[in-house]
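Support request, please re-run this one:
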Amino acid sequence: MKTVKIIGVPEHFNLPWHMAIEEGAFSERGIDLQWEDIPEGTGKMCQLLAEGETDLAIILTEGIIKSISEGNPSKIIQQYIGSPLLWGIHVASKSKFQTISDLEHAKAAISRFGSGSHLMAYVNAQQHKWVLRDLSFDIINNLEGAVNALNTGEADYFMWERFTTKPLVDQGVFRRLGDCPTPWPCFMLVGTNDFMDNNVGVLGHILEIINTYTQEFKSIPSIDRTLANTYGQQLKDINDWMALTQWSTAQLPLETLDNIQDTLLNLYLIKEKLEPSRFLMR
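Re-run finished. Output below.
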């Protein structure tokens, strides 16, 4: 049995992996696929990949491209979610802020530098033509930390996947001022160079299994109810999310990679553009 470590956020996007593991799809191929939830998100996952503490990760596109550009010895194996991520822009329920424009000089809560919540704060600022050097941040590690920071006034707003935070909006903990979709596909399947170089056959089995599960996922009977019950979501929200979400088995297109690098470069988040071979498994 070949042990393979994989990490991802504890969110509804990743249910296909858990189903495949629980149903023995990987173990039937001689693979002990060990999943670990990383609630801190992409910044932490980039660190674990760079340190060789995991073999694979389901990770935000902009975060891993920034990390690889800084020397992370990993590559994108393929797209996992081929549709954009809808980032909700949240404030505390009793916050004085009423519109997104009110946040121009406010402090953003981020899980860590290099995370999606950090990078998308820049994307949102650019879209609203704010002065990027005026952005300020409070590191909160995870969703629980964001709740504390916003309600104590340590930070003013928090960007996180809209449907994951929807229960907190329903409970009156957060108020959502609007959304900021990523201008590209949101989640990638990423592996360390060492793992991919030495486990070509194993990786092929993993891709065959997970791609079968994701392509059939929406047709599973009552999958919307399973998702709602598993992740504490309302059924309507899950159906709205499923209508927006498309899983993918394709590699990230070169023009999309080019656009992401251009965006990060223009936001001063990376120092230079690199060749596609630095980012993409071929």
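Residues 86-181 form a domain with the D-Maltodextrin-Binding Protein; domain 2 fold (CATH 3.40.190.10). Residues 74 and 143 are 26 Å apart (CA to CA).
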